Amino acid sequence: MKETDQIQISGMHCAACATRIERIVSKMDGVQGVQVNLTTEKGRITFDKQVVSIQDVIQKIMSIGFKASIAGEQQANTKHHELTVLKWQFIVSALLTIPLAWAMLSHFQWASFVTIPALLLNPLFQFAITIPIQLIIGFQFYERAWLALKSGSANMDTLVVLSTSAAFFYSHYLTFTTLHTPIDPQTIVLFYETSAFIITFILLGKLLEARAKMKTTEAIKKLYQLQTKTATLYAMDGTESPLAVDQLAPGHVIIVKSGEKVPIDGQVLKGNSMVDESLLTGESIPIEKGNGSSVYAGTVNQNGTLIIEVTKRDSETTLSQIIRIVEEAQTSKAPIQQIADKITGVFVPIIIGIALLTFALSYLLLEPATLSSALEKMIAVLIIACPCALGLATPTSVMVGSGRAAQVGILFKEGKFLEVLGKATTIVLDKTGTITKGEPQVTDTYVHDGNERAFFEIVGAVESASGHPIANAIMRAARQRVVKFPQANQAEAIPGYGMQATVNGQQTLISNPTYFMEQKIHIPRDAKRMITKLERAGKTVVVAAIQSRFAGIIAIADELKPSSCSAISRLRKMGIDVMMLTGDNQAAAQSIARKTGINKVQANVPPQRKAEIIQTLQKKRGKVVMVGDGINDAPALTVADVGIAIGTGSDIAIESGDITVIKGDLSKVVEAVKLSKATMTNIKQNFAWAFLYNLICIPFAMFGLLAPWLAGAVMAFSSVSVVLNALRLQKSRI
Fold first, then answer.
1. What are the coiled-coil residue ranges (predicted)?
2. Structural domain includes residue 181
3. What is the residue-averaged pLDDT of the chain?
């Protein structure tokens, strides 16, 4: 049985670490998929739990030198502890490095005016204060490098260990072989400061990087902060009592007072208030709530008191689903990450080869027999080329981008959709509930036998089994005429056409005129003329048949959403081809198209046909995005390169698309496209910096133009710069 779990992984320090975990875990029997994210320090494992358990995977990861556990809320405390340890390691290392830096000034002519105490130039003193940096604080690098080599790979720690060990042990050799000789200690070229500088700068870089990475999780933190731990149970006699939110169940009644957060999803039984849903949906205007209104966990009751019946458990709420989707998106990889993964898989061995070649060329050809110069060049090459920036280039941007999207009510299911959306050439829109409000009103009715009440009694019974916006409109009209509806049996939706059911023993069909013609149900001539007239007026027409005989006509009109025209115009200005596919009639479709400026329209299209049209568009025009309500558009949303589900009212349809817009607003689709493009631009900037940094700095290090201590500083700050660049997405204007 297939299962997907998230695990927390600590101890990763470069992309090679994440690649190694993926490679080793993927070879385990029963593991069907593994994605490890360096930035979030999480892994998503898909496995057959009858073959392997998540604990087996955790044990495997721990056996190769990393810490792993099932993802949970204790992560924040662990992170803060790790950050504190890292901070003190850096402080101690920096304090011990200061005397070495002071002594290093003796090598520079421009610093001849600086007085340097003789003690600082003593090789034994330098050896003594470097030992804690190299062998105590730096032991972590040796440990991780050894574990990497044991599993048949090399990583950043390998390069750090090789470079610092070369500097430290060469200096150690010179220190003790010249101890009882007449050689002046001040004339000996030692590299203790090189070892100390490299480790200190790496620790500083890791500290700044860790702090910056914590900022990338702000979006998910804000979502967690929306959750409340306790709710107030409300009894019918008016008594109140606290209860943990995770113990609430559907049917419980709670009370939410003014200024309090709604603790769980539910339906208002009593009371009226304005509820702020901004942190959940990105909409700044509070929503009015009254009897029968749906309310969601994490929203804030601004005024008034609400008595609410719980409709979902804590783990099933809209907020819980949003948190899960955002976490999964931040853990997943964008396809462009494969470039970095392939490079980092071979990068470290190549750099070691280049470093050895540099040493050989320098020692044998450029400066024959000058060991210190050759060693210095080799150390600089090893340390400058750590692939940290390359590994962080994609995941940090995906993490910040998907978090930024969640803040404005846009949910990306996976990182790949964040990449693909920006490449779309065509966006296909459904009409009802996507371009229009999805709250149509009945405008005209025609009953063949004249008995309107009996007609709506049967029609209302059938449509009560449907949640489609048109069915809801018919139900509202029916309730104005009928108090109680009979039972509808064997109710069945006809996707893209309508509904059928048996009411009072009579087979009843309600559908669009096209389906009537396909079923060869006779429509009187005067009724046909009425249908044509209504359709030309841009209205949606449904026809009813009872016992296979024409019974009547209902015409429905829907209003455009306020943002539809401007959103479609903005998409076209971005060079995206916009098309409308609808199951509605041609006249109604053309009426909406004229108002919104859409040039390409196909009407009378059933759901399966929408999927076929999208497949044809993909062959001709490349990447195609489908935007629909997530109810009737499931086939099209699945087939499209990216399916965007527009949430409408209480039915947010979170699970329906690759991307979900929580509130049904087309302007959010524009924002999603812009954010996708901004994220990809950010990733490319990160890649460009990471590649150029290595391309420029490695030759400088090879020819001795970059001192090892400076190489350590540049390498450390390259990683920090990538994270800081990704953080700019938090401020991006969409």
1. none
2. no
3. 83
* CATH number of the domain enclosing 274: 2.70.150.10
Q: Is residue 201 part of a domain?
A: no
Interval 708-720 mean pLDDT: 77
β partners of residue 468: none
Of 121-135, 388-402, 408-422, 589-603, the range with the lowest mean pLDDT is 388-402
Which among 557, 589, 606 is the end of a domain? 557
What strands, in cross-sheet order, belong to the sheet with 294-295? 240-244, 230-234, 253-256, 306-310, 266-270, 294-295
Q: What are phi and psi of 709, to 5 degrees?
A: -65, -35
Q: 107-146 b/e with 16+ CB inside 10 Å = b? A: eeeeeeeeebeeebbebebbbebbeebbeebbebbbebbe
**C-alpha span between 686 and 722 (Å, rounded):** 6
CB within 8 Å of 642: residues ≥ 6 apart:
417, 420, 421, 424, 623, 625, 626, 658, 659
The residue range of the domain holding 452 is: 441-557
The answer to whether residue 120 scores a pLDDT higher than 90 is no
The candidate with the shortest Cα–Cα distance to 611, out of 634, 627, 590, is 634
Handedness of CA 431, 433, 435, 436 (dihedral sign): positive
Please indicate, yes or no, whether residues 596 and 522 belong to a single structural domain of this protein. Answer: no
Q: Are residues 468 and 420 part of one domain?
A: no
Q: Are residues 37 and 58 in the same domain?
A: yes
Given a cut of 70, is residue 174 above it in pLDDT? yes
Same domain, 566 and 659: yes
Q: Which of residues 72, 92, 119 is at a domain's end?
A: 72
Q: Are 11 and 45 in contact (CB under 8 A)?
A: no
User: Can you read off the two tokens belonging to residue 23?
Assistant: 């490679």
Q: At what angle do helices 586-596 and 525-536 cross, to 10 degrees?
A: 10
Number of domains in the chain: 4
13: domain CATH number is 3.30.70.100
Q: Which of 157, 276, 341, 430 is catalytic?
A: 430
Burial of residue 620 (number of CB atoms within 10 Å: 0-12, 13-18, 19+): exposed
Q: Domain check: are 550 and 571 in the same one? A: no
DSSP SS3 for 622: coil
Query: Is residue 430 annotated as a catalytic residue, yes or no?
Result: yes
Q: Does pLDDT of 570 surpass 90? A: yes
Residues 532 and 591 in one domain: no
Report the alpha-carbon angle 279-263-653, nearest 5: 60
Alpha-helix runs per DSSP H in 31-74:
54-63
Round to whole Å and give the CA distance between 630 and 206.
Answer: 44
Euclidean distance between CA atoms 474 and 482, whole angstroms: 12
- What's the rounded mean pLDDT across residues 469-490? 87
426 and 445 share one domain: no
Q: How far, in Å, are 68, 408, 504, 516, 545 from residue 550 at the CA level? A: 67, 48, 17, 9, 4
**What 8-state DSSP symbol labels residue 362?**
I
Tell me the three state secondary structure of residue 415: helix
**Residue 681: pLDDT band with limits 50, 70, 90:** very high
pLDDT tier at 632, thresholds 50, 70, 90: low
Between 186 and 520, whose confidence is greater? Answer: 520
Shared domain check, 508 and 578? no
- 376 lies in a domain? no
When pLDDT is cut at 50, 70 and 90, the band that residue 184 belongs to is low
